[in-house]
Amino acid sequence: MIEYFSSNLWLVWTAVCVLALILEVSSGTFYLMCFALGAAASIVVSLFGTPLWLQVLVFAGISAVCVFCVRPFAVRYLHSHHDDRPSNADALIGRKGVVIEAIAPGKPGYVKVDGDEWKAISDEPVAVGTEVRIISRESIIMRVVKA
User: Fold this and answer.
1) Buried b (16+ CB within 10 A) or exposed e, 68-97
2) Which end of the chain is more exposed for a tag (fewer CB within 10 A), N or C?
3) Are strands 116-121 and 141-146 parallel, antiparallel or unpaired?
4) What are phi and psi of 133, to 5 degrees?
């Protein structure tokens, strides 16, 4: 069996390539994709009957080039939209809600936004049932103005 694989190293490189692709699908880091590309290059080189040391050198070289040159561009291109999207409480800024507990200057109340209740403050008095817009947040307290 070992003799068969040593004379057909392209099968070993194919197994490495497929395994790296399967693991890449589960991780999404693009590191294993680089190793899959290195293994694919080694498949091509092994088909010409080159020695194992040269195949390993091609694998390591192509993988390293991909990690340092190709991966940063791929990550930047594929994950570019994630940096601009606000999350958690920051996503509430600009949203509208309804006052469920009156807000007085210097005394917080509560607003309901999309079914969630948030402590809120305002520079002017706001009565229960008034629609407000969130303009900023200070920790978990929302600053609101009448909508």
Assistant:
1) eeebeeeeeeeeeeeeeeeeeeeebeeeeb
2) N
3) parallel
4) -120, 135
**CA-CA distance, 55 to 40, in Å (whole number)?**
10
The token pair at 80 is 């570019």
- CA dist., res. 141 & res. 77, Å (int): 36
Q: Domains plus CATH for the chain?
A: 1-80 (no CATH), 88-146 (2.40.50.140)
Residue 83 has pLDDT above 60, yes or no: no
pLDDT one-digit tens code per residue, 1-15: 778 777 889 999 999
- Burial label, 6 (beta-carbon count in 10 A; 0-12, 13-18, 19+): exposed
Cα 4 to its chain centre, rounded Å, is 42
Q: Which amino acid is at 94?
A: G
Is the Cβ–Cβ distance between 102 and 125 less than 8 Å? yes
